[in-house]
């Protein structure tokens, strides 16, 4: 009995953390690489069916339909001289001596493609989706090595904004790392070296504003203190912020041998980001990736950071954009205590303010030496999101969904190192793991994802293949109101009239009340089906048993948040699963008389008990040889489970 109590305790502990549903999906819209692509860059424009992928010496232009994928592969080989030089120079990097495409971005209607080109980066323009040509244009173009790193293991981030391309290059030995404006109609710029301490970039996002001059770009990164003692944490997670619409101060360089002007960023600021419970030792300091969800032209939203600790465990922390904005606007600057004269240093100001006035020059000096704010950015809900601990998260994207109650809900898609996707609803109450998708035949890690909210698609890439999924995958939730509501999927609602779980149509009129949902709690009382559920019986499948045989009865597990039990002869006795996973299996244990009678498998969730499957065991009285018996037991199990699944 003791072991049983333990088991049920364990079950209640993990229930919230596990995905409620598990789907094995092999969509026809998938593409296989001819060779493994261990570094993939992705570009996708919302509303299109085309996905651009950068691989090793190759650009893939993939056009997805619901039936399959049309692919165009454009070779982008390295110069032979670059390969020879690379191989002669660095033996440990020999595998990286090729042209890995690191950047594909659309800047002002031009698709810019840059690659490592075996240690001496090169850029192209992709013309007509078919041809790579040399970069040309009226705008400013930085050297390719400011846009793409020389080797794929050096992580870089690129973000098009306001007709320009912003490129962030992580630090490696002998290279400090920087943020630059590299391409477009505006002046080229670079951050000061003292502002970033061995940065490893994790992401970048535009923070919109109704006033154009207040538009900002956030860069997410980790800094590494290489002189930290062994007992000290070398990583510090950071948010860096710049204004896109700022005036440029050019100044005379002192001590230069000939006159030259230096152009500077006047608005760089950075803040420390914490992820962990309170001030405990359980801190996750290495930010690996970050995504931002914001409403159109509003400075509100949420940022999700993917962090790891020294043991490689990954977690997600969520931050409020308002909190971050507040900190940048009001916090003291580290190491600077004098009062500010005029505009606060580092703020985004209108371009027509007095450029180069004495206060601005002074503020420039303040930001140059004191870019860090004192306030620390802490996650909403204080701790990391309560997610399964056995999955290592490798990539994440997020979406914002307008639900039937006219409110917005955040949905996270987490790619794991096993090639799975977790679909997670995040509300003010916490997280709910809607489902887990197993997509790939080869269980490699998810390397990259792109989301298209407009068309409702998720693109997922591993080193072997790329697949497209529907965000509103409502048909999988079953054909009852209760199953639809308990899915807690904000993309899906129960259509009262058609009695179907459907995707919320674009432009749905919330006042009609045609669709129902309940996203805040797992509670399907809106369906009003309680009485009907109690009555529902399945017709028992007959199984003829040889006496003296071990028999196993399988019950397919649909909801991993439900409790499964077996009952005999209308609930006179009930039994736990002998073992469970995808099936709750009833088998012979000491006091389980698996003989004649009707066995029903019952699933309890949200306070309701529902019958899933039932078997009538009929004894045919004959004895069997012991060795054969166990084989037969197993074959019954398998026979019945295939019967169920088809
Ligand atoms: C792109 O397409 C246009 C129109 O079909 C054609 O005139 C042009 O030559 C093409 N450019 C390249 C580089 O192929
Ligand atoms: C986009 O390119 C065109 C033509 O090259 C140029 O006139 C325009 O100013 C650019 N727009 C931006 C926002 O840079
Ligand atoms: C790096 O760690 C060392 C040792 O604790 C410390 O003295 C130094 O100030 C740290 N550097 C920075 C930039 O925090
Ligand atoms: C300059 O800024 C002021 C507000 O500071 C604004 O009223 C004015 O319209 C701006 N002028 C131009 C030309 O943008
Ligand atoms: C929504 O439906 C209500 C009545 O059901 C109607 O009065 C209203 O005009 C509709 N709104 C829109 C935007 O169609
Ligand atoms: C579900 O919601 C209804 C009405 O809001 C409430 O009466 C009921 O107790 C809830 N059920 C559970 C299991 O929380
Ligand atoms: C079958 O029953 C006989 C005697 O009733 C027993 O000795 C034997 O171990 C049983 N075999 C199995 C597989 O239970």
UniProtKB/TrEMBL annotation:
Protein keywords: Developmental protein, Differentiation, Disulfide bond, Glycoprotein, Membrane, Neurogenesis, Signal, Transmembrane, Transmembrane helix
Return the SMART domains for the record: PSI, Sema
What are the protein's GO molecular function terms?
A: chemorepellent activity; semaphorin receptor binding
Q: Gene3D superfamilies given for it?
A: Immunoglobulins, ligand-binding face of the semaphorins, domain 2, YVTN repeat-like/Quinoprotein amine dehydrogenase
- Compartmental location: Membrane
Q: Where is the Sema domain?
A: 20-471
Task: Report the domain of life of the source organism.
Answer: Eukaryota
Q: Give the transmembrane region(s).
A: 623-645
- Please give a single GO biological process term from the UniProt record: axon guidance
Annotated signal sequence is 1-16
**Gene Ontology cellular-component terms listed:** plasma membrane
Q: Which InterPro entries match?
A: Ig-like_fold, Plexin_repeat, PSI, Semap_dom, Semap_dom_sf, Semaphorin, WD40/YVTN_repeat-like_dom_sf
Which Pfam families does the entry mention? PSI, Sema
PANTHER family in the record:
SEMAPHORIN, SI:CH211-113G11.6 ISOFORM X1
* Family statement: Belongs to the semaphorin family.
Provide the protein name.
Semaphorin-1A
What is the organism lineage in this UniProt record?
Eukaryota, Metazoa, Chordata, Craniata, Vertebrata
